[in-house]
Each structure stands twice: as structure tokens, then as C-alpha cells.
User: Fold these one by one.
Assistant:
Number 1:
Amino acid sequence: MRRLLRRFFLGKPLPTKALREERLTNQQALAVFGSDALSSTAYATEEILLVLVGLGTLALSASLPISLAIAGLVVIVALSYREVVHAYPQGGGVYNVAKTNLGETPALLGASSLIIDYILTATVSIAAGVAALTSAFPELFPYRVLIGILGIVLIMWMNLRGARSSGQIFSYPTYFFIAIMLITIGYGFLRFLTGTLPTTPPPVESAEPLQAIGLFILLRAFSAGCTALTGLEAISNGVKAFKSPESVGAAKTMARLAALLIAFLLGITFLAYQMKIVPAQDETVVSQIARTIFDNSPIYYVFQIGTFLILFLAANTPYADFPRLAAMQARDGYWPKQFSNLGSKLVFSQGILALSAVSILLLIVSGGYVHALIPLYAVGVFLGFSLTQLGMIVHDRRMLRAKMDDRRQNVRRLIINSIGFAATTVVFFIVLYSKFFDGAFLILPMIALLFFAMRRVRRYYNNVDKELSISTTQFLNVPSRSILAVVLISKLDRRAVEGARVARGLNPASVCAFHVTFEKEEGDHVKDVWEVLFNDIPIEVRLDEFREITPTILDYFSSVERRWHGKIVAVVPMLVPQQPFREFLHNQTAKRIIEAIRRQSGSNVEIYEVPVRVETGEKV
Amino acid sequence: MRRLLRRFFLGKPLPTKALREERLTNQQALAVFGSDALSSTAYATEEILLVLVGLGTLALSASLPISLAIAGLVVIVALSYREVVHAYPQGGGVYNVAKTNLGETPALLGASSLIIDYILTATVSIAAGVAALTSAFPELFPYRVLIGILGIVLIMWMNLRGARSSGQIFSYPTYFFIAIMLITIGYGFLRFLTGTLPTTPPPVESAEPLQAIGLFILLRAFSAGCTALTGLEAISNGVKAFKSPESVGAAKTMARLAALLIAFLLGITFLAYQMKIVPAQDETVVSQIARTIFDNSPIYYVFQIGTFLILFLAANTPYADFPRLAAMQARDGYWPKQFSNLGSKLVFSQGILALSAVSILLLIVSGGYVHALIPLYAVGVFLGFSLTQLGMIVHDRRMLRAKMDDRRQNVRRLIINSIGFAATTVVFFIVLYSKFFDGAFLILPMIALLFFAMRRVRRYYNNVDKELSISTTQFLNVPSRSILAVVLISKLDRRAVEGARVARGLNPASVCAFHVTFEKEEGDHVKDVWEVLFNDIPIEVRLDEFREITPTILDYFSSVERRWHGKIVAVVPMLVPQQPFREFLHNQTAKRIIEAIRRQSGSNVEIYEVPVRVETGEKV
């Protein structure tokens, strides 16, 4: 049953050797890893204009040089990341680069900031997509949390089905967005060249003259626009998802993504300036541009659909990256081990599930109002950029010293990464400074928390491994000790009988039985009947006034441990129904008892579960 | 740790013999069981007026006779339920009455409709309370689902702490509401008598004359007002919560509750009529009354707070009733057994938790917009009323025939219950008919679903009990079979060594080891090392291409079962960390394997968990 459901939802399991075939083509990879970065062009220009408009509409002209500066930054970052992709074809981005070149602390810092960025991206993208949907259909507004959850479940499901199938399905909307964006910008440009570009009616111009644009405002506008760069690093984390040769494909895709980003950003900013568009409360800047250029024709609605889809799909990029990063860290011991398990469809299912769970939780807690989270993004992203480039500088210098590659190429690489480091570090501080009180200050403790948690998990696993390793084990020749078997009895039925039988079969030095009762009469009855059935097995019945069972049982076992110095085995009969879904009707108490014994520190009681099967499949 | 947290949140556990002391005084019981019924007076009049206003404002005068009819119905129902309380001091209301007198089917029907009513009451009350809060503080609106969840958690927490403490805490707001309601109605009446009762400015009167008020409209208005009766039956379900003599206290409390209900309903309807109040979009009728009577003075806000509190607290009545009903049904086998477990604070914790979980889910799914659910209430409630009275008629006739009591009293009782049955049955059909398309049609399949689920659970438990009973067991003298012990190995460390040691200690006829690998090299390595360490225990290593482990292991065991006809024991080493909260870092795979073996139908493999303790508590 269970297996059939699994097959139905996930499709056929894939053998490990199919891993090569589950890679993405460059086209698919651009869609999977690029949707996050591309989606930010839908609002980056607006973020810049929103800061500038505070100084009056004339100040909006500053948006052009600011966008050019951001485009330059995109070029620098993309060039530096091309080097990352070549040097670290195994992927992992900042985590891997920093781990190899800078040590544990920077690697975990970088990984923490990326992970927080992924979680925010997934949640905010879904919420933004739902917000676009509910502006079009206000009657859906009450159900937006539910719709958001369904959206997350959909993306989760596609990703659980395997990298290739999610790549196939999700590349259509991304290319749809790319196409409609290129058409819009191209057509707008054509109308500009032919002098027919319409302008929006100029709003009532404030009488005040243009104020001097202060440096702080410029920096704020610049760092607001830097949201356009979020997601640019996604490719470097998932190089292994590309078809072989991985680095070549990844570098090529990175270049294409950067070119599209720059074209979209500059195109939109240019058109917005020429059309004298001012950010409005009730309509986005890109929507104003498209609506005006296409004179409200149906193609405008096609554009809106494209924007909606890309905002929604930006949530897919974290699904491509986060599970890979978590798996890499789990192999190094920084995450619970199950995150490194490759699922039946060759994806890291645990990471996909965890990301979905956290996003759903955030969505419920915030009630779907997550716009406040947007400024938080950029801080973590630029911290990651900066650490990556610093790691690459160390890497390049080592290569230079080792005289591994062509010297000229090495020097060129060192220069690129140094410029990248300088630029992204400066921008990191600008973003941190100008957005600190908008909420960026919240990011730092979150990064710290994750950082310390990862480090503790690693230390802990290390110690456990040391303790478990056979070399330190002196147990090999310990003689086996004499066994005391304790049968736990809940009710005098076949379970008790089978428990007694199994206990006797353990070849124990001694057998006894234990029963907890809440009412004296019931306990006396059990004792009487037991003594008739099994006169060779002594039974102890305890009255538990507080009806908590587990403390009574733990208490009993500690008193037994004081008296018996051999091995103690708790024999627990468990009812096994024919149909697994009936489990919830049985064994709730037995499971609690087993958990409690297992968790009791200092105790060495072993647990023997005896399955007692029932064949009943009742007919109504 | 765990136990400390428990003590902190729940307080000291109570011994079973404290059950008597955990009873409620009549005052507390009126608050706990009455809050649902009392809260409905906050909107019952409005529901009547909303139906009538469709015919023009003159039709509103029909509200007075309608309210009188409802008040009469309250008297009838309260009188009949006094008899229920006396005849069934063990509580359980319709379920118990119908089970004893009418048989299984009516009992389950009544219980199902009550349970659905409880779930709706809990969810809708919380949502209504939150709606009142967010109208006062619109900035909280985005967080209303979260606030609702916190509200449910608060009520859940108080109820988990024990009946008495929730009775103590929750009676203050209820009596506060009763007081402010009495003050408002009394002061309004005083102003009416002194001729100073203000009227609201009459709205623009439609020119049309009063239309003939059709029968259907009258019935609709009547059944809309019948929401005032919801919750009236609550006391009969929880008689056991009263201090001894239970029936006397319960009957007295029922009479007081009915008196308050009638006073509030008639008082509000009278004042609304005299003050010419018309239901408005943006303000409730009771709010209009209080605001006008108190001329917007601060006491009006006190009134609003009282209304808010009672709406919120109406959710507490289901918490008093549902767990008791579920426990009673669980003891009869209709619910999973754990619902009958009396928790450490002498409440049925499982029922409290289940009710909270379902309510939270409903709140999330509906996004907090649950006003549409209100018409669904009354159908289930009146079905319960009607079945109870029918059961009582059968009971009374039996008593009459048996000549148990005073004959005159018996006849009086039979008459009361017959009138009750006739009235509630008629009202049930009126409500069903007039609200059918408002959503009442949804209630019937839900009742049917619950009904069949309960019946199936009972049949299933019956069959299992029969199968497990010792009388049918022929196993007592079966000789114990020879054991094959299979050690499951995940990694070659102390766990494997202890597993082998334990397996040898079982005195088995044969021992072997099994390991699943994902990569051939790893498997070969394990095999080589194992053969050096334990040359007497043969090992089998299987390569699992699909990385699913459990199918491979199940497959292995079925092949073993074909070859070995004795007993098979799977020895599973489990890592036990020093601190229980570290569990999630370990054993995820081992637990999955155990579950799978346990659930494999047709297999008889027994499971032996070997705890391998690690002492590590790492320092950072």
C-alpha cells in the first residue's frame, strides 16, 4: 500500500548509477538556479526609485548611474564566481571554498548566512506570488496562507520526484518570463527610438527645487538595488547538478544569467526613467511600464502572468541548493546524518522536507505578510560573496606559489578575485549600515545561532565516533553475563502468554513479570490469574496512583538494577495489526514505555519487542 | 528535564483518589458549562433581526413573539434535561441516554452530532473572539490565525492543568459577562420605565408598506434565533464534574443557566425593539444597545470587553465536554483506547490535545474566516436534543412499567419528556429545512462519516480482543523453537560488537550478520573486517542500488524465513545518547527498519533492541 502510494507520487526509484542521467542541461539549470536572481529584476528598480522619490521626482534621474554601478557589480561578481566554479567543480559554493582555504569558522559563517537566505527566499517568494494572485482575485485573500502552503507542497513534490523532472517542469515558466521580459524591453526600446514611447501623466510636481542628493541616500538607493544580485551565487552551490563537464556548463550558464540580469535591470531602469514613472502605492513599476508600453492590450496581462510565475518559482532555487549544501555539511558532520541520505529519486529528500517544513511554519506564523523580510536578504548574500572571494584569493595565491597553472592566467584570476573581494566587502558594509535598522540586525544573531548549532553538532558526532570506534573497545572478550528477563504485562491476554514464552526462550538465569495497575482490584485479579497460569514466574504488581506508568516502570527497573548485577532484558509484547494504518489504535502505551527505558540515562536495560500479530480485518 | 518541564507547565500530578476534590462547585460549573450557551445570547437576537429586516423595518416587531417562543423552548428543553441529569448522574448526555434506551445506532448518531458541534464551537468561538479583537486593533489583523492558535493553546493549557484550575480561572470572565449583561439590561429597563430610553435615529424608511410576513420567513427567523439554545445540553454531558451529590448540583445549575439565557434573550430583544435598533454592517446589535443606553460612556467599553471575553471563552465548554464524551466512548471501544487514559492531572489529556489539534487545523485551513460555519451548529444540536428526549421517553415508560418510583412523578416526567421530544424534533426539521442550503447539508455527511468510523473501530477492537483472549490460545504448551539470531550492522563500531555479543547470549541455534551497503567497496570492506573480528558468525552483505534499505532488509528476512523454520530474532543495536534531546541525531535509520519489520504482514521476525550508550556530553 505504502509502497504503491510512494510509487504513484514519486515515480519509479532510481538506481545510484543513474546519478549521471539525473543531471540538468544548461537550459534547465539556468531555469532552476536562475529563477531566484531573475525574479529580483521584477522589483530591484522599484526599490531604487522608492528611496530616491523621497527627495522629489527630479532625483529619480540618479537611478541610471546607480543601476550602471549595480550592473558593474554583477559583472565583477559573475567573473569571480566563474573562477569558483572552475576551481570547485564539486559545488558547495562559499562553504567549500571557505572550508578549504579559510578554515572551519568562515566556512560555517558562510554556510549559515546562505541557509538563512535560502529559507527566506523560499518563504518570501511564495508569499509574493500569492500576494500577486490575491491582488488579481481578492476573494482568495482569506485563503492566502493555505494557497501558500499548497504552493510549497507543489514545489516540494516536484523536487522530491527528482532533479530532472523538476528542471523540466519549472523551466517553462522561467523561459516564459525571460521571453516576455525581452519582448517588453525590446518593444519599449523600439518605441523610444521611433519617438513614440508614451510617458505617464507627470504627477503634481512638488514646488521645491531638487535637493542635493546626499551620499547616504545614494548609498541607500544603491544597496536597495543590490537585491538584484541575490541568487547570483546559486549556480556555484550546485555545480554537481550540471551535465559533465560540470564546470564548463556552470560557467557558461553563469555568464548567460549575468547577461540577462544586466539587460533586464538596465532596460527597466532606462524605460522607467524615459517614461517618467514614479513608484505608486497600488501598482508595481514593471507593471506600469508594461501597461503603458502595450497600451493596456492583452499582452500586458501575459506580462503580468509571467511576473507572477517567476516570483513564485524563485522559491525553487533554494530547493535546488539547500538540500545539496545540507548534505555536504551532513557528510562533514555539521548536520544530522539523515540529511546526507540520497533518496529513492536521487535527491536529498530530508533537506527538501526540512526546507518545506520551515517555510510553511514561517508562512503560518507571519500570516503571509512577509514583505518586511525582504531587506534581510542582501546582508547574508553579500557576506557569502565576500567570504567566497576571500577564500579564492587564498586559493589563487597557493596556486601561484605552487606554479600549478599558467602564471599569467593565475595572476589574472588573482586580480579578478581581489577586485571581487574588495567590491563585495564594501557593498556588504554598505548594505549592513544602510539597512541595519530596517531589520538587518536580526540576521546577525540568526547567523550566529546557526553557526554555533552546527559546530556543536560536529563536536558531538566526533566524540560519539571516538567513543564507538572498535579500537577503544575492550568489550570483545567480556564474558556474557547472566540474564534476568522481565515480562511487562498490560493485560492478561495472548500478549502476556507470548511474552512469557519468549522470556523463557532467552535462556535466562531468572524470569519475572511486572504489571502496573491503576486500581487495586484489577491488580489483584491479574496477580491471581497469573499465578495460576505461570506458577514458575513470580509477578510483581504495582499500584500507580498518578496513572503515569513510565515513572513507575523506570522506578521498578532501577530497583531491579540495584539487586541484579547481570544483564536485564525487558520483554515487551507489541500488537501488530494486519493493516499498518491501524497502528494508532494499538501500542501507544508500549511505545511510550520503550522510549522511556531507552532514554533513561545510566540504565542498561535491554529491550526485546515481541510482535504479537492479529489477523483481524473486520467487515462492517 | 522532561519531567521538570511537565511539572512546571502542569503542576504537581494528582493521585487517583483526588478525583473527588477535582470536582467543580456549582458556581464554577455554571461558568465552565454555561459559557457556550451564554455567549450565544450575544448574537441570537441579531440573527433573528437579520432575517426579519429583509421585509422592511416594520417587520422587526415580530422579533418579540419569536423570542418568546424560543424562551418557551428553553424552558421545555431545560426541564427535560433536568430529568436526564437525574436519571443519568454518570453524565454522557445523549450518548448514554440513547445507548441505554435506544441502542447503538442512535447513540452513535447523537455522539457524532455532538462531537461535530464541539469542534465547531471551539473553532468558531476562538475565531469570533479574535475577530472582535482585530476590529478594535486593526493592526493585529494580519496575525489573527496566530492569535487564534495562541488562544487555543491557552485554553488547552489551562484544561490540561486540571478541571479545577480551569474552572477557577475561567469563571471570572464568565461572571464578569453575566454581571455587565444584567447591568446593561437592568439599566435599559430602568430608562424605559422612566421614559428616558433613547432610540437610534430611525433609518430612511422604505416607502413600501409592511409586507405580509410569510410563514417561511417566520420559521427562518425562529430557527436563526435557536442558536441561543446551543450549549444548553453541555451540563448533561459532564454531570460527573459536579461535586457530590452530582445530579442535584447539575439540575440546579441547569435551572440557573436557563433563567439567565431567557433573561438575556428577552431583555436584549425587548430593548432592541424599543430602541428601534436595526442590524448594521459594522456594529453588532448588542453593541448598539449598550452604546446607546450608556451614551458612549466608558462603561460601554467595559461591556465590549465582557462580550469579547465570553465569545472567546465559549471555546472552553467543548474542552469540558468533548474529552469526557470521548473517554466514555473509548471505554466502550468506539475511540482509540488512549482517549480513556486519565492524565496526571485527572483530565482526559488525549481528548484535550485532539480537540486542540483539530481546531488549530480548521483555523489554519479557513484562514480564520469561520462565520460561514455558524448556521451549521444548530442542526447537530437539535438532533442531539431530539434523540435524548426520545431515549428518555423509553426510559420513563420502563420506569413506569417497573413501578420503580412514585407513579405521579413518573407520569409527570413522561409528559415533560414527550413535550420535549415533540418540540425539539419539530425544531430540528425546521432548522434543517430552513438552513439546508446555507450549509446544513454539509453536516449530515460529516455525522455519517464519524458514525461509521466509530462503529468500525468498535468492531475491530472486538475482533482483536476475541483473537487475543487466552481461552482461544493453544500456545501454552508449544515447545520453544530453535532461534536464529540476525545481527543488523550499520557501521563497524561498538554497536556491531555489542550486537554480536547480545546475539550470542540469546543461546541461539545459529547466529549470522547482515549489512546493507550503497557502494560495493564499502560493503567489501565491512565484510573483510567482520570476518577477522568474528570468524564464527557468517555475514551477508547486500548492495542496494536504490538506497531504500527497508525493502532490502524485508526481502532478506523473507528469504531467511523460507529457509529457517524456527524463531528468527533481529538484533538491532540502538545508540542511546546521554541527553534525550539528542535523539534526533541518531538512530533514524534503525527506527525506520524496526517499524518496517514490525509492520511487515505475515512475518514473524522478533526484534531485539540493544541499547548502546554513549556518555559524551561535549563541551564547546
Note: Chain B touches chain A through 101 residues (CB under 8 Å).
Number 2:
Amino acid sequence: MRLPVPLPKSYRLLNHGPTVLVSSAHGDRRNVMAAAWSMPLDFDPPKIAVVIDKQTLTRELVDASGEFVLNVPTRALAKATVQVGSNSGRDGDKFAEYGLATFAGSKVAAPLLEGCVGWLECRVIQEPHNQSRYDLFIGEVVAAWAEAEAFKDGHWQPEADLRSIHYIAGGAFFETGKGFQVDAE
Amino acid sequence: MRLPVPLPKSYRLLNHGPTVLVSSAHGDRRNVMAAAWSMPLDFDPPKIAVVIDKQTLTRELVDASGEFVLNVPTRALAKATVQVGSNSGRDGDKFAEYGLATFAGSKVAAPLLEGCVGWLECRVIQEPHNQSRYDLFIGEVVAAWAEAEAFKDGHWQPEADLRSIHYIAGGAFFETGKGFQVDAE
């Protein structure tokens, strides 16, 4: 069951460093790519940072629309994550090619990917110098969602079978492992 | 055994999203804090991004020195990670208080923390607008090191007992889990 995540808790979907899929749309074009380089940037209003290379179709669609979605995939989508990270949407629709189903978000036109455990709908905060020099985009999170089995009441469920994934390189990932609690007293 | 990491591979120390400890020094002052919000930003020359709050002593030392180190801790340092993330170095030397041993880096004066599995020595690329508006720092990685048991020849060792950690919130972490390989063909 997919539930909304209160915006001030939405940073937690990224806080542990998962690899994400960046989806985008403009007019009748849409795309999805993989990004290991994203992070939270602020709590409230929530902001995130993500690197979107100049040469990608995603960049073109994000520049045109001012919007994107960060989708947090699970291991079932690991192969698709590598595939959409290795191929360009300019060569054909990646959703069709890799069998990726989508659903509509609430605040942005970019599609949300089925089978993920978290979704952050984002609007670009225009910072042309960062975008041009570093391919660095800052987004305000305007809506967030999570699969309740994996994340609910503002918390990842440490024993859930549905887990995010963490990209290393060359098709290699780490799974998110066991949760543990530290008493800092 | 600690080995140098070739700079173009150093992004891999952060690519999977571990929580890091940010160490800093200026004159005879030094500090360490925790940061869940960091990411690679470029391959070669390698750059990283990290959020350093304005109110921290770390910020003062980084602003004064133009340098910092990102240390990648293991579970053995999880309690210390929460402690140095919850207390200010203005109230006393956190290295002494939490029993954190250090060693010297090769390019920066900030201390490197014993017991970590990766170290990124960084020099700030001055971006005053990002620093002021978003607490966002961009650093060039000028030297990198890894514990060979955990990371060698440019690769994390997926079966190593020494693993990085991923902060959730409220003293809760995920361990880095099992490594797995995807064939994207």
C-alpha cells in the first residue's frame, strides 16, 4: 500500500544513501535514468540535490519542465536500474523497452515507477551556475510517497523484505542490510 | 592495511551512500561531526558535495582552513557517529571525549580517524552562494585511502566483515548488506 510521506520526513527516503531512478517528462516525451549521486539538502521545506549529466535526455526534459521524480528502487529493479543507467532515452522509450510500469504523481507530470519503495516529486530550484558547472540540480520536494511495507510513520521498517539498493560500479550493488539501533548515552 | 585509492576511483568510497564523519582542523583546533548528506559530484578530478550546517564548529574550521576529510566509519564507530553528530566541539574536544584516535593525512591538515574503512582528503572549491544559502560545500578530493580488507583495487569487497553504515534517524542505522551483481544484457 502506497501512502503519502509528510514532507518534513521525506528526507529519510534518501538519508541512508540509496541509488535512485530519476524520471522526467515534458510534453509527450518522458524518460528515466539511474543516479547514485543524490542526497537530502534540507528538512523543511525539504530539498534534495542530484547530479544530472548534460548529455542525457533526462537533462533536456528536466531543463524544459523544471520537474523530476526520484524513485527509490528495490533489488527486483536492480537490472532495470543498470539498464536505464546504461542506455539513452534518445534511442527509444526506456519504460517500454524494460517493461517499467508507471503511475501519476500528485504535483508533477513526471511519471512515478511501479515497484519502488519511495518516491519524491521535485520541482527544480533554479541555480544555473550549479547546473552548468557541476550538473548539480537542487529540487524542492513537493510530494513524497512510500510503500508502507518498507517505510511507514516516517520510518524505514528495518525487517522489511522490500529494501533499497546501493550502487557500487560495473553492475555491482550492495543491498541495504540489517537495521540496528545505537544508544548514544 | 591502509592503501592509497587512485583518485579517479575515489568516488566509489561514497557511491553507495554511506554516512560519513567530517573531520576538520584550523590552527590548534580540530573537530569531527557526522554527515549523512554527502555524495560524489564528479569523477576526475574527483569532487564531492557535503552539507555542513552554519552553526557547527566544523563549519567554522572548514571556512577558516578550506579543507576537510570525509571518513567512512564502520559499525564499530556507529555509537561514536551518533555522539559526534549530537554534540558540539565547542563544548570540548570530541576526539578525546569519545576516544577517537587519528592519524595524519597527506594533503590536508584535518585529522583522519582510525577505525574507518575509507578516507577522502578534500579541499573546498569556494562557492559562496551554495555555502551561504544551502550549507552546501563542494570539495575536490586531493587524496584518498581505504582499508584494503574492505576496499581494494578500486572495489568494495562485498564479503568483507568491515562494512560502512547508513544513517536513518534517531540512532537507527542500516548496515551495508550483501553485495550482488547484475548482468544488464
Note: The mean pLDDT of chain A is 96.
